[in-house]
From TrEMBL:
Coiled coil start-end: 76-110
Name this polypeptide is given: Septum formation initiator family protein
Pfam families (alphabetical): DivIC
Regions crossing the membrane: 47-67
Keywords: Coiled coil, Membrane, Transmembrane, Transmembrane helix
Length: 131
């Protein structure tokens, strides 16, 4: 949410700068000064240059830039999904372990189904169903 709000403010700022530079409200000349000279004067303004450099630094180069912030947020969401997945797997494994510790019959059933173990006088047949 912060990024969206920050991007809105940033886009409004650039819109205002664009309007100042290109003077969209009037065309031709303002107070006898052509727009091209006004545009040059705005770009030459040291405060404007300092503001642009500051914004470029914050957006792209800073350790906590918007770019790294978005990347960190994406990574955090991925890690949260992985955490939920592994918590679910832990619950399933705990349930299986509980079932195996329930008794000798459950342990024997698990060994027969998973590892195809049998008693010495038994034969095992594996039936494969074709689709």
């Amino acid at each position: 949410m912060f990024i969206k709000r920050g991007m809105k403010c940033l886009s409004l700022f650039f819109l205002r700068v664009y309007c100042i530079i290109f003077d969209l409200k009037q065309s031709g000349m303002e107070n006898g000064i052509p727009n091209r000279k006004k545009w040059y004067r705005v770009l030459k303004n040291r405060y404007f240059i300092a503001s642009l450099l500051f914004l470029a630094w914050i957006v792209f180069f800073d350790e906590n830039s918007f770019v790294s912030h978005a990347e960190n947020k994406r990574r955090l969401n991925e890690l949260v999904r992985q955490k939920e997945y592994y918590l679910e797997r832990i619950k399933e494994d705990e349930q299986k372990l509980e079932d195996l510790n329930a008794g000798k019959k459950e342990l024997e059933r698990f060994a027969r189904e998973q590892y195809f173990m049998s008693k010495p006088d038994e034969d095992i047949y594996i039936v494969v169903e074709e689709d």
